[in-house]
Amino acid sequence: MTDLDWGAFTENGPWTLDLDAISWLKSAPELRRAARAEVPRLTTPRRLPPGARVVTVSARLATALGPWLVRKKRGAYRDGSASKADVSLRLRKAAEVLGPTYIKLGQIISSGEGLFPSELVDEFKRCRDQVRAEPWPVVRRVVEEDLGRTLESVFETFEQTPLAAASIAQVHRARLRTGEDVVVKVQRPQVTSLVHKDLEVLAYLAPHLVGRIPIAALANPPALVELFADTIVEELDFRLEAANMIDVARVLHDLGQRGYVVPRPHPRLVTRRVLVMERLSGFNFDDVAGMKNAGIDTEDVIRTGMIAFMEGALIHGVFHGDLHGGNLFVLPDGRTALLDFGIVGRLTGERRLAFLRLMMYATANDVMGQLGALRDLGALPHDTDLPAVMKDLGLDRPPIDPTTLSGEELVAEVQRVVKALLGYGARMPKELMLYVKNMVFLDGAIARLAPDLDLLAEIAHISLLFAERHGERFAAELGVAENTWELDMQGVKASLGIDSAIDRLTYRDLQDRRALIQKRMRERTAG
């Protein structure tokens, strides 16, 4: 038996993984529990400021935003876009100075195309892999301390210039003395203690932001800090990341997903701060021309990604939680390699079933069912009056095509929905946030790789595929008849705000609609 019998790996790996012989894999469950147990301590607000770090953070943000506010009040910017570009640049530079925690926040924003202003997203994309690297002597010291050996005794070559440098770590090309080409991920020194201090600062500041600025009111700062802490604490131990790689590889293999591969972590060279893994290479996810010139079907790349991502969440409750252009690339044979497994979504027990119900009710256009599933996922309090929510949000009325509304009407509608949700105590569970963030990334990937893809046809195809592959299992898990749910295409069209007579919708069409909506909202808010 080889690791290809249970994992989605390349055919000719540099080594073979034996699950029973990997020591760091056995410790992963307890390490994960310990990391999660720290979250309440780190996110409980203190009565007094948590040390000098809160002063440093406040001063840096004030220094960054002060000049922008002055220029804005003086009317120094020619338009709203120039103002957003300037404040985005200032925030990105402040994040880089403040360090890993704030860089990580920037990375999350960079994946939010469509959720955040494009200027902010574009600026924070530089936080993915263009952060200042640690000096070579620091890198050498971390590697040798964690591996307990000299660098030369383990590696034949080790490139001092990193391939990429991000918030928590940087990666280097290397070759083991046994001849295998590898990539080495090295954690920045002291990053754990700094992240913990910053989480305490954010937890202290968050309650003071509630209701003070519109975006803070929308985001619910204390809940956001808890969500962020729950996400980042597991990234601080690379043994958990290596275990995540194993888990995702097993899920993809079990699902029969041949379009994805995971690099093998080294069975022995994995510690809390060092992760040695198989080196893979291919096309950058944005290199559409390169892929097409190599004969790769970019529409198939997108289609495979959507199905694999959804199947992992619905069937096993396990999915890569941080998809973005820097975390995956396409191999010459058309398969996609997944990278960076620091964040993995895990839906267990009732939450996975609630998520399954959410997706099933969405295909059937059952709004009340979706609200109940969201409640069971933790997005709404367990005692929420769902019929009242439905009425307050206007979900009991026929949907309105947003392109028919004026800018003033659009803004008013958004404000009304946000106010109603806040009134019911709505929040974003971690797994749902990761799933939505990934869907936003895939949305942007479609724009680049498959702009002429017929979205309505793809929705119908994926729904049929899931019914054929998993209909019997879904019905058994939810205790319903197998033919209970059917795709309501008219409901899908209504949710997209398009006329029921339309039977083809490409991504270009959808982008045109969004551009019109955004233009009207910008005009209204600018006024």
Highlighted features:
single chain; 527 residues; alpha+beta; six-stranded antiparallel sheet; four-stranded mixed sheet
Short description:
With 527 residues, the chain is an alpha+beta fold. It has 23 helices and twelve strands. Among the domains are: 37-129 and 194-235, no CATH class; 349-526, no CATH class.
Radius of gyration: 24 Å
User: What's the total count of β strands?
Assistant: 12
Low-confidence segments, given as residue ranges, are 213-218
N- to C-terminal distance: 67 Å
Give average pLDDT, whole number.
86
Biggest pleated sheet? 6 strands, antiparallel
What is the strand content? 5-15%
Topology:
Layout: H1 23-26, H2 28-37, H3 39-43, H4 53-73, H5 80-98, H6 100-110, H7 118-124, H8 136-147, H9 151-154, E1 155-158, E2 164-165, E3 169-176, E4 181-187, H10 191-209, H11 214-219, H12 221-232, H13 238-254, E5 260-261, E6 265-270, E7 274-278, E8 283-284, H14 288-293, H15 298-316, E9 318-320, E10 328-330, E11 336-338, E12 344-346, H16 349-363, H17 367-377, H18 386-392, H19 407-423, H20 430-449, H21 455-478, H22 489-496, H23 507-526
Parallel strand pairs: 5-11
Antiparallel strand pairs: 1-3, 2-3, 3-4, 4-7, 6-7, 8-10, 9-12, 10-11
Helix pairs in contact: 4-5, 5-6, 5-7, 6-7, 10-12, 15-16, 15-20, 15-21, 16-17, 16-21, 17-18, 19-23
